[in-house]
Amino acid sequence: MDDEANFLAGIKRMLHGRSDQWELHYATGVEDALNQVSQTDFDALISDVNMPERDGFDLLETLQSSEKTKDIPVVILTGNSEVNLKSRALELGAADLLNKPVQREELLARLQNVLRLKTFQDALKDHNDILEQKVKERTQQLEELQLDIILRLGKAAEYRDVETGFHLIRVACYSRALAQELGMDLEFIETIFLSSPLHDIGKIGIPDMVLLKPGRLTNAERGIMQQHCQIGADILLQEPEGLKPFLRWHRNQDIYQNMKNPILNMAAQITLCHHEKWDGSGYPQGLQGENIPMPARILSLADVYDALRSVRPYKTAFTEEETVSVMKQDADTHFDPTVFSAFERIAEIFSNIHEQFSDEKAENEVIPV
């Protein structure tokens, strides 16, 4: 690119012998050059600096501002005395400088250098794109494996309880919907979706004579049942003493110290506190108000809703209207008012989730899409 027609004609003569190897384009100004760049993928540009209206610096700045063109190497043409112009051109991203008057051998050498640079850049970009795709695929595999393990762990506790079917999936979906309505960030929303199925994992440690008792529990038995909250939190958070030698062999000590992940931490909060109540009358710690972790406040409402909507040995399933009515009676004492208000706004979404993942579909092995 140069605004002098004679200069461009001289460049054409110099490069004529390479026309069978290179596809050559010429422009007399920045607008003309940018128009061509928008239509063709160029591997290199050569541009004069001093031109009327828009100059070579405008070209560099425009190219650098676009993701599509910022990696095109640009050779800037300057005079020997234009030291400041050379410095500014390099600061704006010029790949190389070429002094006027231009010598054919030097022009060819500079072009070969920047074309070699572009070849390396393209190869590196292609390699990085392949690696990025592999990372995405591997990350997706790990996320799917993680969800699968979480659901299986939650199901392990569920096999010893009366809750069956899609209970874990429904509670996870309710919790995610509530978190979204409450305006939580994406990380919180995804973490509560993944961690909520573990809320009753502590029931693994409750004796059958208590867990499976068909009638009303005695005070002593109720105390034993309530221990499932602490048992679950211990399962999720206690250091795995028996596995430490293996883990230290498999991982270095620094990685081991950071093993606890956000999912386990939130799952432990939920497991320990999902039977706490807003007025402090819940268990196991009698926490009150905002002392109850937000994930547990969300899960508590989701769990109560699903229990009311589901069949149990001691009750029939409530309708949507009956469920909302019962929950309203306990709203001031049991639930965080902010969470309950969010539930009321999206009660229809809860109902749709319950229908989509109904226990009848689970029994008939109908997997919702």
What does this molecule look like?
By secondary structure, this protein is mostly helical. The chain has helices spanning 5-15, 30-39, 56-64, 83-91, 104-158, 167-181, 186-195, 208-211, 219-226, 228-237, 244-250, 253-257, 262-273, 294-309, 320-329, 331-334, 337-345, 347-356, 359-363, and strands at 45-48, 74-79, 96-100. The protein folds into 2 domains: 5-128, Response regulator (Rossmann fold), CATH 3.40.50; 159-363, Hypothetical protein af1432 (Orthogonal Bundle), CATH 1.10.3210. Strands 1-2-3 form a 3-stranded parallel beta sheet, sandwiched between helices. Strand 1, helix 3 and strand 2 form a beta-alpha-beta unit. The protein is elongated.
Structural class: mainly alpha
What's the total helix number? 19
Please, what is the average pLDDT?
84
Order of helices and strands: HHEHEHEHHHHHHHHHHHHHHH
Query: How many discrete structural domains?
Result: 2
- CATH third-level topology of the largest domain: Hypothetical protein af1432
List the helices and strands and how they pair.
Elements lengths: L4 H11 L14 H10 L5 E4 L7 H9 L9 E6 L3 H9 L4 E5 L3 H55 L8 H15 L4 H10 L12 H4 L7 H8 L1 H10 L6 H7 L2 H5 L4 H12 L20 H16 L10 H10 L1 H4 L2 H9 L1 H10 L2 H5 L6
Parallel strand pairs: 1-2, 2-3
Helix pairs in contact: 6-7, 6-14, 6-18, 7-13, 10-13, 13-14, 14-15
